[in-house]
Amino acid sequence: MTTTLTETPAGAVTQQRVRPPITRLGVGLGILAVGALVLIVVSWRATGFGVGVLFSGLGEMWTFLRSTLPPHFSSADYSLGHMLGDVASTVSMAVLGTALAMVLSIPLGFLAARNTTPHPVVRAVARTIVTACRAVPDIIFALIFRDALGIGVLPGILALGLHSIGMLGRLYGDGIEQAPPGPRQAVMASGAGRLQTICASTVPFASPQILSNALYRLDINLRSSVVLGFVGAGGIGFTLQAAMNTLQFQLAIGIVLVMTVLILIMELLSALLRSALIGNDTVRTGRRWISFRKQSRSRGNTMPFDPGRVRPHWTGARVGKASIPYLVLVVLGLAWWDAQVPVSELLSSPGAIAHAVTQYFPPDFTTAGSLLRQGMWQSFVTAVMGTFVGGLIALVISFFAARNIANSWVYRVVRVLLVIGRSIPELIVAIMFVVAVGPGVLAGVFALIVGTIAFLAKLMSDNLEEANPGPRGAIRSTGAGAGQEVVAAVVPPALPGIVGNLLYMLDVNFRASALLGIVGAGGIGFLLAQTVQTFDYRTTGAIVTTTFVIVLLIEQLSNWARRALN
Amino acid sequence: MTTTPVISLRHVSKSFGATQALDNVSLEVSAGQMVALLGLSGSGKSTLLRTINGLHRPTSGEIRVLGTDVAAARRSELRMLRRQVGFVFQQFELVGRLTALENVLSGALGRVRGPRLGTMSYPLALRKEALARLERVGLADRAFQRAGTLSGGQQQRVAIARAMMQQPQILLADEPVASLDPETSDQVMDLMFSICQEQNITVVVCLHQVDLAMKWAERIIGLREGKLVLDVESAAVDKTQVMDTYRRVLDEASEPDPATGGEAPRDAEPVSTYSSARQAI
């Protein structure tokens, strides 16, 4: 086809530039990209990352796996009933911890959202509390509460509850801020008061997200509750650690299998519940696990008109929705009964908790000295490598896990594989790699890569699925090919979300890599485990403080990058 | 002007499940003609447009567009066809995050190989051409502004530039001004039709407003419940006549007929002064 410009007056145009102008923002993003590249190269060298090591370690991994087979679900002094009891208390811990976090996060979310906060100062304070909860790893909270309240499920509940505020409070605040201003103005225009307006326009918009995100957090907390057991917060993790320490690998793998299945079931249940709550396309939560197709038909049209009836009809959907609160109450009640939370003890122990907290202050940065610096650096480069390599692989996979791009069977198979991948506790993956490639940062990198793929591929494919189909149709009608269509109309709107999730993952991975050291996967976790075991509280405090600062820095950076891209 | 039709439909029907969107529609459009499709929401206007560029395949009947048999065409043939047929949407359907220039450039995807991301991934010649097309719609100064930040009228002008980037022989427009205010509507319609006139592009545009149809199109086609009910040359009739016919269409569609149990009469004959007018020329 000839490219003639004669039909359009082009005289003035040829003088004008046809490359995008250089803006300060562009330069900033460029510097960030170059910085990221340098960081990746440095981390690559520091961790000595390579796939070769993995292959040479496959033999040892196999031997180790053989020693765990067949899995045992009980032992001489540990009956199946015992295990079921442990499983129940782990689930209770996760449920109660999530409930606690939700109760505390809802008010924080409304105070932290720009459109509902009473005052900017209140908003800043609320956001700081939320960020602080996120920056302190749940395992640290668990240690503090364990010291104050003793070994048991209660420290686990409190730890999960407080740490989860970090995520829930943030998501709630962001979700509330996304509420469209139009309906608010309309309600306000009708003369409603401030609180009335929020209840009538913002709450209905936010409530599906509030429930859906809490369910999502419940998934995460069930995983964490296993790990918390390692430091004495009760439940199945405690038993798992004991089994590992006494080299009962068959029992250990049995416990891991049970937990994996449990997490899988929980994930399917919460996905079902969430799709029942919000449907697939009505609300953007970006946190769908597996998607269930749900047909949204307009109901009520078919109901006979009855002038005397001023209540909604009891349709199947309404029965389902109305039963949810009762279901939640029953689950909470069961968890409460199972966990035997000693409320009186908790109420009488603020002194003990305060004392436990003060033990960590002032932090002691000098005793550990270079070990602290070295460990932090190791954890950081581990996180960078894990995020980078895992992110690359996840990006490729995400195209096969996006319903609007992949063939529907490919999509289903990949999604199911990702769910299974996410169900295996990260610490277990780390142990496997420690066996395969020996203790050190490399094992940590591999463990993080596996975890990153399973999480990020899901989040990224959700980003891709959120693309508006309108522009796609427009690009298709220009005669573009399928690949061109996806890159031109699906990738650009998904890009900020993808980069945001990548940075979010770096943040998550840094905190995770700070814990991987507990099982010998290098990094600050090793020192952390040591100081905890030797009751060197003030060095532990120094580690937590440094982690806190680095997490905050990563978060600031990722906030800036996300805003810049948007 | 040649009498070879660039678009020809013979007994075309299209149904989505139980819904009959197009019901035995036959019509021909010759090169360079400007046609307006009038009809209520759900009368099949959009389906007709999307059948012409192969986004929908007809359930039965025959469509030839620029010599391509749309019903039987293979995917690659359909793509070749779409490259020659521009499409303008009611909601503009620009990729909001990309700049105006890149959106225009995406109209040239059919001319380049492989996926493209970012303005600089397109050849310089195409970038210059895209800028010229933006200039033609009066938005060269907005080239590097994000499309999502432009006003509705500006976005539709960018969308027109994108369609022109395809160097189309036919332009299809689906309610191109329904989301715009009257003044902007006039500007956009003026721009669209004058560009198409300059380049002898055949235009088929769906409209709600009889006024606009009378003002810009040389031929007016009415659809109701997927059937062709009106086909007149706008010069041969005056405004009130079309308005009357259109109103009659409206009334018949909206008033339930007790004899047929709420359904509008199905035997309405097309008001076809157009074919007689053509024979007279």
Order of helical and strand elements of chain B = EEEHEEHEHHHEHEHEEHH
CATH superfamily heading of the largest domain in chain A:
MetI-like
Strand content of chain B: 15-25%
Tally of alpha and pi helices of chain B: 9
**CATH fold-level topology of the largest domain in chain A:** MetI-like fold
Shape of chain A: globular
Fourth CATH level, the homologous superfamily of the domain at 86-167 in chain B: P-loop containing nucleotide triphosphate hydrolases
Q: What integer value in Å does the Rg of chain A equal?
A: 26 Å
Round the mean pLDDT of chain B to the nearest integer and report it.
82
- Order of strands side by side in the largest beta sheet of chain B? 6-7-8-3-9-10
> What share of residues of chain A is helical?
over 70%
Total domain count of chain A? 2
Largest interface: A-B, 38 and 56 residues
List the helices and strands and how they pair.
The complex is a heterodimer of chains A (566) and B (281).
Chain A: H1 24-47, H2 52-56, H3 58-67, H4 80-112, H5 120-135, H6 138-149, H7 153-177, H8 181-189, H9 194-229, H10 236-245, H11 249-278, H12 316-339, H13 343-347, H14 350-358, H15 370-400, H16 408-423, H17 426-437, H18 441-465, H19 469-476, H20 482-516, H21 524-533, H22 537-565
Chain B: E1 5-16, E2 19-30, E3 34-38, H1 45-52, E4 60-65, E5 68-69, H2 75-83, E6 85-88, H3 100-105, H4 124-136, H5 152-164, E7 170-174, H6 182-198, E8 202-207, H7 210-216, E9 219-224, E10 227-233, H8 239-254, H9 273-280
Parallel strand pairs in B: 3-8, 3-9, 6-7, 7-8
Antiparallel strand pairs in B: 1-2, 1-4, 4-5, 9-10
Helix pairs in contact in B: 4-5, 5-6
Can you walk me through this structure?
The complex is a heterodimer of chains A (about 575) and B (about 280). Helices cover about 75% and strands about 0% of the residues of chain A. Chain A has 22 helices and no strands. Chain A is globular, with a radius of gyration of 26 Å. The relative contact order of chain A is 0.10. The model of chain A is unreliable at about 1-10 and about 280-300 (pLDDT under 50). Chain B has a domain at about 85-165: 3-Layer(aba) Sandwich (Rossmann fold), CATH 3.40.50.300. Chain B has 9 helices and 10 strands. Chain B has a 6-stranded mixed beta sheet, sandwiched between helices. In chain B, strands 2-1-4-5 form a 4-stranded antiparallel beta sheet, with helices on one face. In chain B, a hairpin with a 2-residue loop joins strand 9 (about 220-225) and strand 10 (about 225-235). In chain B, helix 4 packs across helix 5 and helix 5 runs parallel beside helix 6. The longest helix of chain B is centred in the C-terminal third of the chain and has 17 residues, at about 180-200. The two termini of chain B are about 10 Å apart. Mean pLDDT of chain B is about 80; it is low at about 255-280. Chains A and B meet through helix 19 and helix 20 of A and helix 2, strand 6, helix 4 and helix 5 of B. Chain A: InterPro entries: MetI-like, MetI-like_sf, PhnE/PtxC.
